[in-house]
Amino acid sequence: MAAEVEIAVKRITRFDGQGKAKAFCDVVLGEAFLIKGIKVLEGKKGLFVSMPRQQGKDGNWYDTVLPLTREARQQICEVVLMAYQAGAEEPSTGQGESEG
């Protein structure tokens, strides 16, 4: 059984406008690892979280960070969306806002 790892949003940058990208954020895992480039996107069914990706030589996009369990992915998504929604009530500068 895996131990619970503390997940916190270190920085979140929100975007105003009509595009699908709503924010980029950096997440800290257990005060030991930093994941940069997690995205909050607007989809047909609402907001969702996308892990960092890199384009391969074949033109396809590949995740560069892969949560190994469904529970880990869900926990990261919940923390990121809560941070995004908490800040959505505040005025956005589009310059980058710090959390935690």
Provide the CATH top-level class. Alpha Beta
User: Whole-Å distance between the termini?
Assistant: 28 Å
Shape: globular
Alpha carbon gyration radius: 14 Å
Number of helices: 1
Mean pLDDT: 85
Taken together, the total number of domains comes to 1
Q: How would you sum up the major sheet? A: 5 strands, antiparallel
Number of strands: 7
| H/E series | EEEEEEHE
What's the architecture, going by CATH?
2-Layer Sandwich
> Helical percent range?
10-25%
What is the percentage of strand-forming residues? 35-45%
Low-confidence stretches: 91-100
Indicate the CATH topology.
Arylsulfatase, C-terminal domain
Class derived from helix and strand content: alpha+beta
* CATH-level-4 superfamily name: Stage V sporulation protein G
How are the strands ordered across the major sheet? 4-3-2-1-7
